[in-house]
Design brief:
Elements lengths: L12 H23 L11 H6 L1 H12 L6 E5 L4 E5 L10 E7 L8 E4 L7 E5 L6 E11 L2 E11 L1
Antiparallel strand pairs: 1-2, 2-5, 3-4, 3-6, 6-7
Length: about 160
């Protein structure tokens, strides 16, 4: 009788698969832990109520688009100024509302300014206290009992 040794070679797949699955679990765990250290302020506090007012906002935007001369927001980096030119067809004494300076990256920097245009329907806002980066300028106003809304992104330098 011959002694035939059995083939004792084992497969490399079980340890390799175990290693790959363990790596995936460790990677997801690290991502979950690291995500708790990052701020998530890209959504405003009043997100739900803003969503409920969608139809109102839509009609305000529609009213704004119907104006013959548009509202204009211009940023001047050398002067550190944000200049807002309201439509010349509006009465400066009848414009009431707010300018919301929204900073997506830092909620604590958001601010609201009351609209107070001069006789030429201009309002100037100093940007010297505003951090560099992306800002959303949201202007909500009423004129002649009609509501308007305008939004523009500005990058402060």
């Amino acid at each position: 009788m011959k002694n035939n040794p059995k083939n004792t070679r084992t497969s490399d797949w079980p340890p390799l698969l175990t290693f790959v699955f363990a790596g995936i679990v460790i990677a997801f765990t690290c991502i979950a832990i690291l995500s708790t250290f990052f701020r998530s302020e890209l959504v405003m506090d009043r997100y739900y109520s803003e969503g409920l007012n969608y139809d109102t906002r839509r009609s305000q935007v529609q009213h704004t688009s119907e104006i013959s001369d548009e509202l204009e927001v211009v940023y001047s980096a050398p002067a550190d100024l944000l200049m807002i030119q309201f439509p010349l067809s509006m009465d400066p004494g009848a414009i009431h509302g707010f300018i919301h300076l929204y900073r997506p990256a830092a909620q604590e920097m958001d601010s609201t300014i009351q609209i107070q245009p001069n006789v030429d329907l201009n309002q100037v806002i100093s940007t010297s206290a505003m951090d560099n980066g992306l800002w959303r300028i949201k202007i909500e106003w009423t004129n002649a009992e009609r509501d308007y809304y305008y939004e523009q992104q500005v990058t402060i330098e």
